[in-house]
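re: ur question from earlier - yeah i can do the single chain one, its not a big deal. heres the input i used so u can compare w yours
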Amino acid sequence: MKGEDGKDKEYFPGDKWMIYGPREFVPKVSMEVVEKRRTIPLGDNEGIYVRDTKSGQVRAVVGKTYMLLPDEELWAKPLSEVVLEKLAQQGNAKAYLDGKTQAKARDPSRVVTYSVPHNSIVQVYDYKSKKPRIVFGPEMVKLGPDEEFTVSSLSGDKPKRPGVITTLCLNLGPDFMTDILTVETLDHARLALQLSYSWYFDCPHGDVDAATKVYNVADFVGDACNAMASRIRGAVAAVPFDAFHKSSAAIIKFAVFGEEPGSNPKRPKDTLKFKGNNLVITSVDIQSVEPVDAKTRDALSKSVQLAIEITTKSQEAAARHEAETREQKAKGELERQIIDDKAKAEKERLHLLGLQAESAAIESTGASKAEAKATAAAAEIEGQSAVEQARLKAEAQSVASEADLQATLARQSAELEFKTELNHLEVDKTKKLSEIEVKKFKKSVESIGKETIAAMARAGPEMQAKLLKGLGLQGYMLTDGNSPINLFNAANSLAGSS
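and the output i got, formated as tokens:
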């Protein structure tokens, strides 16, 4: 017959193959339809376990739509009742708290998923590779075919009992756990202590090594409570009941945490760390302390009543003593105040007498002081008057001298201006006379004429004398302006001739 690829293919008895639709198929008499299969749709967080019938290998198919092959089949993964119960409690807080779950149908061929809460871890162990796998929350765990959850069985209830709590995940804290333990003091008083321990795991998010170390101790609650109860019993057994009753918190904290080395005063350490699984205890709270025996309870009640009575009486005595002390102190302060007042009054009286004596002395010396002051004031006034008169006289003389000086300056200035003006007039007069003589000479020369003068120059000395006389000149000198002339000699000759 033809195969899926359209080619002829030969099948032998016992062979299995699949016919994929859509199509019509009519089996032969020698064929048997074993199973009708459909495509299995799967979401991102869904999967199925598929087993190969030839090799027996089982694998998980997650997050895709899948159609089984002819030699494959769905494989049912077996789970324990505890794991099934815890898986059913997912998302049901009431069922988790009540510890009751309603069974619901589960497809065993579906991949097992578990939602890890926030700040929690889940350990999954692969039995094929023999290696654990740690998942930090919030995250969804998908189990492989060979993987199983590590179920933690923890102690619970008060006092702690093993196997009370079963869980698939471990909370990293911080959280608290409560325990009740019985202790016996040095004087054989048996007490029931209810203690609350605050704790957390020192496991950073993503630190696989630290998270693996958390699972080293199967029941960390029971182990931690037993270890701390042993320490507390040893510490309480070393002290009497009265000492424990007075400082129970300090004794228990020192017992659990130990003493801080080098501290002064002594104080307990801040934390207690279990190195086996990185569990850290941060605080211890004493919720209640009750005697176990009825006789001890009655004796404790009587001792408490007696302590209350003793405390009341001591408080009354202290109050009475305090009142008496205050009364005596008040009396002493009153007497001291009276003495202080008397001393202050005597001091004020002495001061008054001193003031009275000073007043009498002032009265006796007041008249003479006043007269002397008046005489001194009169002399001072007279001296000031004389000084003022001398100053005024000096100012008057200064003013008169200044006036005389101004008058002299004005007179001299007027005389200077008059002489200056007179000199200007003389100069103007001389200038005008010289101008008149020049004009007169010029007009005489013009009236004679140039030819006449030239003829006179060519005539003899007698003629020149007549000409000069006619011109009104006593002498003259002619030059062409090129030859130098000794004016001093010419002046002397002119003077001699004249």
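The two ends are 187 Å apart (CA to CA). not sure if urs matches, ping me
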